[in-house]
Structures are given as C-alpha cells and as structure tokens.
Amino acid sequence: MLHLITLENWSRAQIDALLDLARSIKTSPTAYENRLHRKVLVMIFEKPSLRTRVSFETGACQMGGDAIYYDMSTSPLGAGKETIHDTVKTLSRYADLLMARLFEHAHMEEMARLAGIPVINGLTNFNHPCQILSDLLTIKEKRGSFQNCTLAYLGDAHNNVTHSLLYACSKMGIHIRVGCPQDKDAQPLPEVLEAAVQSGAQSGASVTVTHDAAAAAKGADVVYTDSWMSYHIPKDALKSRIKLFRPFQVNADLMALAAPQAIFMNCLPAMRGYEQTAEVIDGPQSVVFDQAENRLHMQKAIMITLLDQAGAA
C-alpha cells in the first residue's frame, strides 16, 4: 500500500509523475471529472485548516467522489473513548482514502501501519508533504524547470514546512539555503538535514544552513517563509519569538538581494508585519495565491495516484 506520509520515502521519479499529473489536471480538469466516481475520502482533523480541508473536499467532489469531514474534537477518538487502531480499522471498511491533519507525526505513522486504504498526511508538527508538492508545482510553473534553481527559506526552520522543503528540494535538484537563528529550537532536525545532504549528493543540489539572512537570500530564485507562530506554539511566546526571528523577516531590502526575477512564497496563513512585510506578500513577486490554488490540483493528483497504486481507481 502506497501512502503519502513524508517525502523522504518518495523518489524523484514518483514526485515528477505527481507534478506531471497535477499539471494535466490543472490544464484539463474535465478529463478527470469522474476519476473518483463513488469513492469516499474521510478527512480527520485534529488541527484547524482552510486550504487543506477545502482543497481536498473540493478536489474529491470535482472528480465525482465524496469527502467526509471528521472533527477529532467531537469524536470518540479525540475524547479518548476509541483508539487509533479501532478508528482506522473501522474507517478502512467504509472509505477508499484517509487523510489526516494531526499534531503528532507518530500518530500519522500508526494510521498508515494499520490502514487497509491509502493514508495521506495533511500535516503534522514534523511534516507537510502535500503543501510542498504543491509548492514544487508552483515553482516549476514559474521557472519552467528546477535546473539551476536556488530556494532560500527564512525564519523558523524547526517546523514541518522546512523539513518537507529539505526532503523535496534535495531530491529534485533544487539548491536550498535555510536562514534561521542559531537557537537549537529554530533549526531543522539534524536527521532531516542529514537525509537532505545525502539526497543532494545524488541530485546535485547543495544544502546549506546559515544564520545570516542576507547570505541565505543573496541571488536566490525563490524566497520562502512561514509563520513564526505555528499552531502548536503557545500564544504567550509571541513576544520572544518576534525578537528571535525579526532578523529573518522577509522585507523589501531582503528581497532586493535575491535574483531579479525571484518569486516570494508563503504557504499561508501569513501575518503581515511578522514573517514578511505587507509590501512583499502583496507585491508583484508574491505567488502565494498561486500556491494556494495549486493545492487543489495537487490534492487531486495525490488522490488519483494513491488509488491507482491501491488498484482502486
């Protein structure tokens, strides 16, 4: 059974195939309007969501399937009345696909081990593969290819987006520079960084971590940032995190150091005046809503691919 839990276990060829399929779906959506006929996607949400929920639900419906929203806060699973084991075993008898958006990555891995249907990671504290696959689609659309492409990520690097970017960029031949504070809790996990370096050695991509924002951004083709206040960060940490990450804010001066045709990316939600300024995210180099749109096309490609691999499409 093929699942999408982390991009670490997906090959460059598999990712390329997803990108090709997503582009085809985006160009000719009516050709895929019955690909999920009578198929059911169950979506388990422990974390709140806009883009993940709506893109998956819309994608399933537009391809002739159905999507069921399952809120953990009002469920036996969330209340501790039922185990992951019993929940997943039951859902595998009802549905064709399972997507979950959880806090703990170990719980996502447990779901994949137990499920009799494909499982999709809609986000955990460790990884966000669906987002980064959509980002790859956006970068390829804007640049035409990944060749000679450098992505600079600025800000909080101890998060799911950075980890997924490291896995993806290093596999696809995209040079990646991570600009973040020296604080251990602001840097990527060492095991993710090591895996990225190994992948980069095969693809020709360089992997760099720097604590100098200007060095990270200089000449970059893609400048990427993410929220300083991820869902699991307590609200009372805001003041200290602003102080920690302010030197890595993406503003006009920092963007001016990137390549002339550089694009700005943020997976959203975004806080203007924090991880980036309004003039950047609302400016001509920003592609944040192209990223958001591409979640829809990529989610469709993911669902089709996993169902095909399971022999259920």
Describe this structure in words.
The chain folds into two domains: 7-128 and 294-309, Rossmann fold (3-Layer(aba) Sandwich), CATH 3.40.50; 131-291, Rossmann fold (3-Layer(aba) Sandwich). The chain has helices at 12-27, 51-62, 84-94, 105-114, 129-143, 160-172, 190-203, 213-217, 238-245, 252-255, 278-281, 288-309, and strands at residues 40-45, 66-71, 97-101, 119-123, 150-154, 175-179, 207-210, 222-225, 263-266. It has a five-stranded parallel β-sheet. A four-stranded parallel β-sheet has the order 2-1-3-4, with helices on both faces. With 313 residues, the protein is an alpha/beta fold. Helix 6 (160-172) links the parallel strand 5 (150-154) and strand 6 (175-179).
The count of domains is 2
pLDDT averaged over residues: 96
Largest sheet: 5 strands, parallel
* Low-confidence residue ranges: none
The fold-level CATH name of the largest domain is Rossmann fold
Q: Tell me the radius of gyration.
A: 19 Å
In terms of DSSP E residues, the strand content is 5-15%
Fraction of residues in helices? 40-55%
Q: Record the strand order, biggest sheet.
A: 7-6-5-8-9
N-end to C-end Cα span: 13 Å
CATH class of the largest domain: Alpha Beta
Q: Would you list the SSEs in sequence order as H and E?
A: HEHEHEHEHEHEHEHEHHEHH
- Give the overall shape: globular
Structural class: alpha/beta
Looking at the overall shape, the CATH architecture of the largest domain is 3-Layer(aba) Sandwich
Number of strands: 9
- Tell me the number of helical segments per DSSP (H or I, 4 or more residues long): 12
Could you give me the name of the CATH homologous superfamily of the largest domain? Aspartate/ornithine carbamoyltransferase
